[in-house]
Amino acid sequence: CGSCAGTGVKRSPVEIKIKVPTGINDGEVIRMVGQGEAMQGAIPGDLYIKIHVIPDKHIKREGNSLYQTLPVKLTDALLGAEYKIETLDGPVTIKVPANVQHNEVLRIKEKGVPVGNRRGDFLVKIDIELPTKLSRNAKKLIEELKGEGI
């Protein structure tokens, strides 16, 4: 016939639903038993689907843990503050402790990638931002702090 060109097989697109398991890694393959191609009168083969996970711009994944860099103002690093960050479960408030150090990592337990009945952690790396411009008053206050040995 014209639609199979005499091969006895007609190709046609089919839409199927796939359940992608949580925590799947880039490059992993999902096997759909009996959903592949078949010759006329034969048993269908299996369909293999290779997963490509698009990386997030701000959050990096390493195993089951997620990493994010958090820009923190100098005054907040010295005095402590609360910041909202986005996790897989939505926004979470994180307490940045007073005197936090640059590149220090804060851990939010069990807010990482879910795999089975366990979850990884969400790790927040502190990036203390220094001001690029200071007012006269700010310079004066910093000079006073310098005099205090800070």
TrEMBL record:
Coiled coil, from the record: none
Molecular-function GO terms, alphabetical: unfolded protein binding
CDD domains (UniProt xref): DnaJ_C
Entry-linked SUPFAM superfamilies: HSP40/DnaJ peptide-binding domain
Alphabetized InterPro entries for the sequence: DnaJ_C, HSP40/DnaJ_pept-bd
Species name: Candidatus Kaiserbacteria bacterium CG10_big_fil_rev_8_21_14_0_10_44_10
Domain Chaperone DnaJ C-terminal: 13-131
Entry protein name: Molecular chaperone DnaJ
Entry-linked Pfam families: DnaJ_C
Position of the signal peptide: none
